[in-house]
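User: Predict the structure for this protein chain, please.
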Amino acid sequence: MNSARYCSIAFLVALLALVPSAVGQTELQQIQQQGQPSKGTRETVTERSAALSTAPRDIEKLRIAPGFLLNLSVLNDSDFSGSYRVNEHGDILVPYLGALPVSGKTETEAREEVRQRLIDLRLMLDPQVLFSIQEYIPQEVTIIGEVNAPGKYPLLAPHDLPTVLTLAGGQSALAGNSILVTSPSSTPSTRIVHESRATPVSEVSSEMIYPGDTVQVERAGIVYVVGAVNHPGGFVMQDFGKLTLAQAISLAGGTDSTAYTKKIYIVRKNEDGSVVQLEVPLEQIIRGKSPDVALLASDAIYVPNNLLKTVMVNSQLVLSTVANAAVYTLLK
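Assistant: Here is the predicted structure, written as structure tokens:
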């Protein structure tokens, strides 16, 4: 009987590599059916996109980029006045002043750049400079990962992270707690924004996204519980991916009457692709006589049947349950 039980575990270990793809297809189909934006939602996203692509109220925050056409006027001196196109280096070429770096600056900052250059070159003591954006090239933000409608969206001026995420229809049901924001530059920088029930709303709202940024919503880890439990399936890890063995068993509705709880198994796939099998004394953990076990994303927990009640575990049935496990999303 022990050989039968270990045989079933061997099947589970051997086919664990097949689980992510099979479950991935099933869970994505379920999420797409449940979370795919409706026609009304897509129209709302389009409307929001259009709203952010038009000249915003905070137009003064619009940052200049290559291709912009700028209008410059210096009071009482027409030599410097005119329209200037920002070149691929982010400069405008102004007579007598040379190349002025304006890319990434606002109108106010660019005006000060011109004014300071006139003073530094001793061409004027207190120049009165008028500066405005005459034409602009639509700028975009790239939103990818676990959002309902990933893609590129117009973004002229900086907006807070929650507002930008609405452009892509919001986060999907499989979204995790980590959002990566990459800002383009000569040395691109990436910062991580954490969002969970413990994160203050004001903290997330204070994260500003700028044109050209890439926002990537990370996928939450999923732990699978199969075997002699009441509700086998996959459970999305939230709160920074923290989930213990006892919590996972509880989410699966607890063990059923045929469960053998003295030893259950955690099948874990390492980063190098190798698979390990851990024996865990669930009964001792439930009684508080053994410490709980912290789970990792993609762990598969197998609760065997009591050998006194079941002569042999149907390995194919177990694997079928894993491959077709429903994915449940925990509330944030």
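Residues 36 and 166 are 14 Å apart (CA to CA).
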